[in-house]
Amino acid sequence: MRPGGLRILSRLRPGPRARLGLLLAALLALAALVSNRVPSPEQVRTWIEPWGAAAPIAFLAASTALHASFVPGPLLAGASGLLFGPLLGTAVTLTGSICSAVVELTVGRHAGREGMDRLGGRRYRSAASWLESHGFWAVVTLRLAPVLPDAPVSYAAGLSHVRTWQIIAGTAVGAAPRAFAYTALGGSLSDLSSPVAYAAVATIVIAGVAGGVALRHQMRRSRAARTAVAELER
Q1: 20 to 30 A from 138, CA-CA: which of 59, 155, 207, 222?
Q2: Whole domain around residue 213: which residue ranges?
Q3: What is the pLDDT of residues 83-112, one digit of tens each?
Q4: Is residue 228 part of a domain?
Q5: Long-range contacts of 5-9 (CB under 8 A, 24+ apart)
């Protein structure tokens, strides 16, 4: 291609502010769409079961796309438990959580980070500084913390300079308890009085308490942590 053609293409490419605006608009549209059309675990099971031996791979691809579209993680984990049982289901759920986190981080990074670096105010810089400074441990804390949804956390991490390996390792550690718990509950729907179901509930409680304590500790020590959590809860 001639140099003149390259210059024209570069002019047509949206700038950092436009990309950030498009990212936010797309995420809001996805959230609105999914809020009215969240598939049930049984529907997900109906879609995936015909894949046979390739069902775990098909579910992994589907759950990554659905999670990035703001379908709640516990629902996807429950569907994984229904399909594959507690053991294989937990492995599939956790792998899907990691893949989703990487996709969301990458989208946030390429579509919105440059724009936020230019437009972000004091609160953004403070939150980004906390995420970048604590990296792995910040991700672990946010994954364990109750209430905070995973997808917005990952997109927000992409707007900062958190490294990819930190989001992968932090998600693998921090999301593991809930991945097991919700998957086990999904696989135990026919017998919620089973030991596995009780263990799942206990894991949810313990992980939530641990995440809450860790987050409170971070908030006491760091004003940036308070700002980060406030921004993620919006």
Answers
A1: 59
A2: 18-23+40-232
A3: 998 899 999 999 999 999 999 999 888 776
A4: yes
A5: none
